[in-house]
């Protein structure tokens, strides 16, 4: 009850000081609101519980070897592990893919998942309507869909259960609908789940009549395991290591393989986890700076109230009573600031959703739920403690001599030292945040300055996938692409139409092992190359120069000897710089003469996975000699034609050729490239905003402490001017005061930033965490800001009337 009484008194007191109250509340609202918004993203993306049974028991298992620490599983090893693992109660496979959906209007591509029959059993998920898969149905063509697909595509018709969905030209019986809240971040935005044949998810590539269960070197599966009752992750790790050793002894192709794992909940957050952790740290620094600023404001307020505090202390008020009054004012400010921060939350969240990259999934669930509200309360209470601790302590120790003796506005040296320490701390925190932002900006600029090895301006890209059931023979696939390229090339406004199996910067690549004729490696070893299937016009369209030999011609067909082009990295790393023209390589059976491929040309290298991708060996084949069932079409528009304007004519041209095959993922090449930097840009933008806010708050703090210093030293300044000091000299003294404090803050900030910036090392490219240019730029910026912040009170001090100032005391 006493504290409620104190709160009422504090509210009335704050209402009489609207300037102070507004400044403090807005500062707290910015700090608390920013923390709430960022935490809501962390909660939605990293902390949300998966809608499965006992999610803490689910593991994501993959394969690692000497060439890659993070690779998929082949069907053979997956089935071996499914048979042999005893420390898990269930072991299922999935493949993040998409299907052509027909029979429900125009054909379209749907995000999907191909899974083994026990997938939902391992997850512990039941259907809301119908049923999920069982191991008994794994050889049937069945499908389960999400609630959103059921409502939007099937009109919520109950009779749709039991009907056929035509996926990639094949009918799949719809057996179940998942719950409305079901989503699995590990599978993007999958709308359709289909069972693969023989207990193994569908292959992303046409395999014809190949028995997928025998494949041991075609890695496209991911696995999910449920820890068995009584087992631990240590038990699973030990058994996986033992099985890897056993498989290596039985099969030379398994040598060097291991099977790492992590919790399934972390599988889809690997890329964004460090980004969100950095943002959470950055916004925490902003809150600390805001608290330091409010503490400084409250110290100024206690200076104004020091005579009142001295009188009350002289009349018997205890130190606890004086501290409680300051705490009550802080509580009122925190309540107002926290409430305003929550009100700003939805706008901040909407801004984050608009700026967020596609890889940051799960933001559709953003909101002010119980977890976010609890976090906001925790942050508010922490802020209350931080910014009231020092002012409350100072208020509890009033100077009973100065104020009661008519000491004017002079404050104690303790308060002056405290404010000095606060502004130094505030500056140091701003330096840490600015250095982090500067390093990230430098890194982004370094990445963007890298030459990707191809042109991306004014190109339109369209992905396509041919259903294996309709196009099962290589001549059919090649003929389809021939006809489609002719149609697209003839469209008005199209200069050139070409294709590639996996487009650079698209996030996917094909990698194959191979041997070189005359220099075969021992069994179980092979060279590795990126594998590109292209149209003869691809190199010219993408601006990739051919350096020697010839390109592909119309004569390179299925009936002629297979030829290839390689890049210069291939020549240097595989052939030690020897002339590659005429050399032969083999991706398959060394005993079969038809499997040998002759190198006929050399092209410039391309960074395939992104700006920071190391140049690697690449091999190019013509689609007429190795036609794949999926590709990316690239349209080069005529001068003056907007690339996006070609999308609809291209779609109509494809529809005229086939009623079952859609284009999807239609983007300009610039958009595809930009997607690889989306997460970095998001991070740089938000950290930059927080850094700008930190600098603004630091400037306000510097202005406040210099103004306070001028107020404290009015009599001294008046005496100096009365004794002959010039305005320039007074201006210099005051400016040195402000710049000196910032210099101390910069020094302290750099000392803290040096070890902390190493945490960003994994996100930096082309710049070190101790980059001198960044540190120097931050120091110069803070000193400039300090100079501007101190200029106004310094100018005011230089214009004091010495006689009037001396008469005031």
What does this structure look like?
The protein has four domains: 1-55 and 286-406, no CATH class; 63-259, no CATH class; 408-450 and 679-809, no CATH class; 467-660, no CATH class. 47% of the residues lie in helices and 15% in strands. The chain contains 21 helices and 21 strands. It has a six-stranded mixed barrel with strand order 2-3-8-5-7-6. The chain is elongated and about 105 Å long.
List keywords for this structure.
alpha+beta, six-stranded mixed β-barrel, single chain, elongated, 809 residues, 4 domains, 21 helices, 21 strands
Topology, please?
Blueprint: H1 2-15, H2 18-47, E1 58-61, H3 75-84, E2 88-102, E3 108-115, H4 119-123, E4 129-130, E5 142-145, H5 147-152, E6 164-167, E7 170-177, E8 192-195, E9 222-227, H6 233-250, E10 261-263, H7 273-304, H8 306-314, H9 319-355, H10 370-395, H11 413-448, E11 460-465, H12 474-489, E12 494-500, E13 511-516, E14 527-534, H13 538-542, E15 546-549, E16 563-567, H14 568-574, E17 584-586, E18 596-603, E19 618-622, E20 630-637, H15 647-657, E21 663-668, H16 669-675, H17 678-712, H18 714-722, H19 727-756, H20 772-798, H21 802-808
Parallel strand pairs: 3-8, 5-7, 14-19, 16-18
Antiparallel strand pairs: 1-9, 1-10, 2-3, 2-6, 2-9, 4-7, 5-8, 6-7, 11-20, 11-21, 12-20, 13-14, 13-17, 15-18, 16-19, 17-18
Helix pairs in contact: 1-9, 2-7, 2-9, 2-10, 7-10, 7-11, 7-17, 9-10, 11-17, 11-19, 11-20, 12-15, 17-19, 17-20, 18-21, 19-20
């Amino acid at each position: 009850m006493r504290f409620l009484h104190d709160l009422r008194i504090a509210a009335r007191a704050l209402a009489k000081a609207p300037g102070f109250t507004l400044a403090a509340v807005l500062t707290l609202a910015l700090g608390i609101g920013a923390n709430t918004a960022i935490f809501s993203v962390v909660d939605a993306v990293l902390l949300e519980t998966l809608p499965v049974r006992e999610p803490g028991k689910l593991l994501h298992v993959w394969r690692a070897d000497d060439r890659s620490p993070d690779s998929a599983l082949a069907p053979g090893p997956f089935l071996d592990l499914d048979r042999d693992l005893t420390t898990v109660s269930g072991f299922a496979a999935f493949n993040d893919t998409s299907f052509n959906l027909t029979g429900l209007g125009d054909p379209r591509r749907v995000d999907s998942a191909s899974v083994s029959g026990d997938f939902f059993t391992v997850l512990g998920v039941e259907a809301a309507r119908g049923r999920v898969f069982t191991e008994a149905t794994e050889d049937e063509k069945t499908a389960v869909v999400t609630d959103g697909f059921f409502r939007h595509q099937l009109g919520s018709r109950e009779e749709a259960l039991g009907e056929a969905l035509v996926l990639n030209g094949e009918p799949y019986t719809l057996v179940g609908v998942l719950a409305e809240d079901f989503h699995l971040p590990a599978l993007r935005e999958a709308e359709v789940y289909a069972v693969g044949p023989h207990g193994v998810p569908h292959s992303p590539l046409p395999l014809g009549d190949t028995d997928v269960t025998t494949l041991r070197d075609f890695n496209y599966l991911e696995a999910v395991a449920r820890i068995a009752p009584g087992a631990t992750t240590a038990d699973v790790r030990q058994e996986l290591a033992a099985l890897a050793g056993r498989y290596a002894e039985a099969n030379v192709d398994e040598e060097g393989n291991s099977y790492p794992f992590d919790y399934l909940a972390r599988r889809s957050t690997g890329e964004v986890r460090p980004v969100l952790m950095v943002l959470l740290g950055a916004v925490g620094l902003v809150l600390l700076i805001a608290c330091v600023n409010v503490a400084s404001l409250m110290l100024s307020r206690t200076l104004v109230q020091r005579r009142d505090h001295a009188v009350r202390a002289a009349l018997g008020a205890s130190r606890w009573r004086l501290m409680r009054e300051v705490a009550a004012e802080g509580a009122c400010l925190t309540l107002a600031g926290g409430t305003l921060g929550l009100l700003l939350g939805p706008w901040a969240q909407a801004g984050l959703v608009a700026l967020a990259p596609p890889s940051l999934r799960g933001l559709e669930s953003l909101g002010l739920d119980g977890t976010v509200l609890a976090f906001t309360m925790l942050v508010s209470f922490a802020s209350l403690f931080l910014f009231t601790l020092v002012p409350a302590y100072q208020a509890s120790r009033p100077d009973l001599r100065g104020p009661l003796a008519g000491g004017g506005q002079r404050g104690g040296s303790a308060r002056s030292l405290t404010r000095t320490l606060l502004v130094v701390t505030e500056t140091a925190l701003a330096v840490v945040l600015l250095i982090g932002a500067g390093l990230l900006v430098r890194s982004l600029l370094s990445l963007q300055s890298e030459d990707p090895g191809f042109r991306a301006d004014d190109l339109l890209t369209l992905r396509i996938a041919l259903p294996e059931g309709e196009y099962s023979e290589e001549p059919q696939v090649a003929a389809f692409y021939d006809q489609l390229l002719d149609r697209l090339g003839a469209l008005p406004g199209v200069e050139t139409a070409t294709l590639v199996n996996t487009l650079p910067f698209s996030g996917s690549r094909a990698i194959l092992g191979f041997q070189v004729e005359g220099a075969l490696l021992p069994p179980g070893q092979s060279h590795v190359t990126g594998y590109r299937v292209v149209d003869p016009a691809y190199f010219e369209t993408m601006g990739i120069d051919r350096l020697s030999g010839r390109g592909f011609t119309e004569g390179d067909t299925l009936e002629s000897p297979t030829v290839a082009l390689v890049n210069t990295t291939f020549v240097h790393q595989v052939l030690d710089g020897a002339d590659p023209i005429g050399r032969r390589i083999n991706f398959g059976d060394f005993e079969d003469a038809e499997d040998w491929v002759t190198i006929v040309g050399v092209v410039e290298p391309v960074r395939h996975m992104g700006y920071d991708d190391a140049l690697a060996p690449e091999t190019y084949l013509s689609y007429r000699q190795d036609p794949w069932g999926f590709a990316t079409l690239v349209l080069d528009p005529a001068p003056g034609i907007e690339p996006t304007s070609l999308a609809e004519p291209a779609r109509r041209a494809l529809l005229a050729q086939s009623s079952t095959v859609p284009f999807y993922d239609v983007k300009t090449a610039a958009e595809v490239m930009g997607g690889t930097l989306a997460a970095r840009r998001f991070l740089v933008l938000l950290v930059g905003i927080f850094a700008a806010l930190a600098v603004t708050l630091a400037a306000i703090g510097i202005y406040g402490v210099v103004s306070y210093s001028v107020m404290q030293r009015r009599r001294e300044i008046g005496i100096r001017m009365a004794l002959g000091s010039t305005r320039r000299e007074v201006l210099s003294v005051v400016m040195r005061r402000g710049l000196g404090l910032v210099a101390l803050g910069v020094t302290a900030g750099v000392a803290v930033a040096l070890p902390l910036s190493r945490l960003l090392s994994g996100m930096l490219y082309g710049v070190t965490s101790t980059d001198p240019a960044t540190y120097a730029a931050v120091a110069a910026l803070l000193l400039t800001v300090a100079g501007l912040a101190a200029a106004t009170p310094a100018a005011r001090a230089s214009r004091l009337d010495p006689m009037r100032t001396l008469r005031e005391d």
